[in-house]
Design goal:
Layout: H1 24-33, E1 38-42, E2 48-53, H2 54-61, H3 70-81, H4 102-112, E3 116-120, E4 126-131, H5 132-139
Antiparallel strand pairs: 1-2, 3-4
């Protein structure tokens, strides 16, 4: 029975997505105000074109100055505004279909050490996201 449970029953939906043309200040606002670690990147037509993780974003942050001056803060903001999501995102994305089994999802997580996978429809539009946290909550409720 457990092997027949579909991804769509566990996925988080709707999903916060970003555009490849967004700059890192937009990403910063999202990561600071939400408990997200993965953001699907979608084109204007809603199709999946990449993924951006909090780890990717943190790599960008490591290039910022650590000085606590007004000048440094302005310089850091300028730097974040100069980098677009398309320059940082992962372009080759493994994805799931809503009818895929959680067994398939778990296998992909284990094999690739991913922590989240976008769920797309037949037109490659993002309709959800499944994380290892979702699987753990399902496998070990309460």
């Amino acid at each position: 029975m457990q092997n027949q449970v579909q991804v769509q029953t566990l996925m988080t939906s709707p999903v916060k997505t970003i555009s490849p043309l967004n700059v890192m200040t937009v990403v910063s606002d999202i990561f600071e105000t939400h408990n997200f670690h993965h953001l699907p990147v979608v084109a204007a037509d809603g199709t999946l074109v990449g993924m951006l993780t909090k780890h990717d974003y943190n790599i960008i942050l490591s290039s910022l100055t650590i000085f606590k001056t007004e000048w440094a803060a302005l310089d850091n903001e300028r730097f974040k505004r100069s980098i677009q999501v398309k320059d940082v995102m992962t372009k080759s994305v493994v994805k799931l279909h809503p009818e895929d089994s959680i067994r398939k999802a778990a296998s992909i997580f284990k094999e690739n050490l991913f922590h989240a996978l976008p769920v797309v429809d037949d037109q490659n539009r993002v309709i959800g996201i499944l994380s290892t946290y979702d699987l753990m909550n399902w496998a070990f409720p309460g």
